[in-house]
Specification:
Blueprint: H1 2-31, H2 33-36, H3 44-64, H4 68-95, E1 101-103, E2 110-112, H5 119-124, H6 128-139, H7 145-150, H8 154-159, H9 165-170, E3 180-183, E4 186-188, H10 214-266
């Protein structure tokens, strides 16, 4: 029984350590400029990571001090949390699968169409009710102003592949409009205003830019998709380890219960 409990304690310690990359991924997601402006997606991963940390700590204490009731509660709660984490992973994968990007000839960056993203993201993240707050939040960030510090000439800007989807959609007009580059957030003399409805929404007012454009909404979704895809890789690896730890912990707990029952039987208690 002691050996089984020690093994369970070690496994719980490993599960506790697994909660660190989950929480770190959530904090990283929440700290991104786009996620800071989208409250809906900011904290679910962080909350799950903290809950797994707390439950794993309880399981470690229960195994170390031979508290079978606490261990049983731990196994039940951990199963629920692993299930919730799987739901979050599957949901994030499904809603971020569609990619609204398309290449622009002669440009190192891509542009984005709102129609290319999932219906759920469009309906729940960038709908008209939410966008007013998101737009004001984005205008207060340094997402666009820092472009003027990074790129001086048009060639530098056009050849860059480091421009994010958010910057591509919100900080400049669509390429099809035919605006002439002055600096990354200042464009003049369009030649094809009819090419896109966003051409009429572009403003050289630094507090406006293309924040009201559909291309900005698409850029925000492009950033969210990119960030969540990166986080999902870490979460997938972590959840696989958690499932492996949980299965072994369940087996160790069941074997310990069987050994305890057999010992009592031999002593004549049963």
């Amino acid at each position: 029984m002691a050996l089984a409990n020690n093994l369970t304690a070690i496994l719980n310690l490993l599960a506790l350590l697994c909660s660190i990359p989950i929480t770190a991924s959530g904090i990283w997601l929440a700290s991104k400029p786009d996620n800071e402006c989208v409250n809906l997606l900011r904290w679910p991963v962080v909350v799950l990571g903290v809950l797994i940390l707390v439950v794993s700590a309880c399981g470690f204490i229960g195994a170390y001090q031979y508290k079978e009731t606490l261990l049983a509660v731990y196994l039940c709660c951990m199963a629920i949390l692993i299930g919730l984490l799987l739901v979050v992973l599957i949901f994030a994968f499904v809603v971020t699968r569609p990619d609204g990007s398309y290449p622009i000839p002669g440009r190192g960056y891509k542009e984005y169409k709102l129609e290319g993203f999932s219906n759920w993201l469009r309906a729940n993240v960038v709908d008209s009710k939410n966008w007013r707050k998101i737009r004001a939040c984005l205008a207060d960030t340094n997402v666009c102003p820092k472009l003027t510090q990074e790129f001086i000439t048009a060639d530098q800007f056009f050849s860059s592949s480091s421009i994010t989807p958010l910057q591509s959609g919100c900080c400049k007009p669509p390429t099809a409009c035919g605006y002439n580059f002055v600096n990354p957030t200042l464009w003049l003399n369009p030649t094809n205003m009819a090419a896109d409805a966003d051409c009429y929404l572009w403003s050289n007012d630094q507090s406006q830019l293309c924040y009201n454009c559909n291309s900005c909404k698409a850029g925000l979704l492009g950033n969210l998709r990119k960030d969540w895809r990166k986080a999902n890789l870490i979460l997938i690896i972590t959840v696989v380890i958690l499932i492996w730890v949980y299965v072994i912990a369940c087996s160790a707990f069941r074997n310990a219960q069987t050994e305890d029952l057999f010992r009592k039987y031999k002593q004549g208690w049963v």
